[in-house]
Amino acid sequence: MKLGFIGAGNMGGAILRGYLASGRIQHKDVFVCGRDLDKLEKLCTELGVNPCQNISELMDACNVIMLGVKPNMFPEIMPQVAEKYSSDKILVSMAAGVTIESISGFVGKEAKIVRVMPNTPAMVNEAMTSVSRNKNVDDEQFVSVFDIFQSIGKAEEVEEQLIHCVIGVSGSSPAYTYMYIDALAEAAVKNGMNKEQATIFAAQSVLGAAKMVLETGVDPVQLRINVCSPGGTTIEAVKTLQEKGFSELVEAGFQAAVDKSRLMSK
Predict the structure, then answer these.
(1) Pyrroline-5-carboxylate reductase dimerisation domain: from which residue to which, for each copy (predicted)?
(2) Residues of the chain with CATH 3.40.50.720
(3) How many CB atoms lie within 10 A of CB 99?
(4) How far is 97 from 25, CA to CA, in rounded Å?
(5) How much is the pTM?
(6) Using H for helix, E for strand and C for coil, what is the string for the chain?
(7) pLDDT for residue 91 is more than 90
(8) Within the chain, which residue ranges are assigned CATH 1.10.3730.10?
(9) What homologous superfamily does CATH list for 171-265?
(10) pLDDT tens string 157-179
(11) Do 46 and 73 touch, CB atoms closer than 8 A?
């Protein structure tokens, strides 16, 4: 694989760093281009990868191309991509609201396209990424792309129509989780703990609870029941959260993200 990144900002850069750190690709086989040539040179020197002066140069060098630019940049960059696109190349897009069909409109209906929706924990190799492909990407080609996202956390193949749901449950949800952690920490501060220590206690508890769900295979509802001793502190907290509409608030936030994603795709 010769892997190219058109844009390596926060998300693209996190994926790039994570995949390099996995050791599954050699630095000499990675190419990057970007609008800010000074930042590009600095990044490529730091990571030991190849800078490209323009999209044309990168397209010539690579057979898997990550489209790491904002949705509003697609009308500008895609004609340049299309000019150099050939059937041996796979385009991988991480842009919210940009469908596989709309990308095909630039490069043709026979183009091989994969659409992904990672999240910001990619920066610490704990991303959750959905991966969707069109019919032109065969299993062997898909595995090579899927491996990139497995190297930076967990990945699941889903139908593209579920991407709005993915955005609600994982793409945007780190933000809701940060809110929960901060609220816990602020409550601890009000009870005498300093903010730095309180944040560690809250964040580690969220991390541990998440690992319990992933590694035990026990339903989250049962895990909650298991920790709620009758007449204890935890069940008192859970009852209060339920009375205050905790689940309904989370669902409302989720749905707002989903609805916005659908609107962006129109």
Answers:
(1) 160-262
(2) 3-163
(3) 18
(4) 29
(5) 0.91
(6) CCEEEECCCHHHHHHHHHHHHHCCCCHHHEEEECCCHHHHHHHHHHHCCEECCCHHHHHHHCCEEEECCCHHHHHHHHHHHHHHCCCCCEEEECCCCCCHHHHHHHHCCCCEEEEEECCHHHHHCCEEEEEEECCCCCHHHHHHHHHHHHCCEEEEECCHHHHHHHHHHHHCHHHHHHHHHHHHHHHHHHCCCCHHHHHHHHHHHHHHHHHHHHHHCCCHHHHHHHHCCCCCHHHHHHHHHHHCCHHHHHHHHHHHHHHHHHHHHC
(7) yes
(8) 171-265
(9) ProC C-terminal domain-like (1.10.3730.10)
(10) 999 999 999 999 999 999 999 99
(11) no
d(CA 184, CA 188): 6
Q: CATH classification of 3-163 is 3.40.718.10, yes or no?
A: no
Q: Is 11 annotated as a binding residue?
A: yes
| Angle at 144 (CA atoms; ends 88, 103), nearest 5 degrees | 55
**Positive/negative CA dihedral, 135, 141, 143, 149:** negative
User: Is 8 annotated as belonging to a binding site?
Assistant: yes
Interatomic CA distance for residues 32 and 87, integer angstroms:
21
Angle made by CA atoms 113, 98, 165, in degrees to the nearest 5: 95
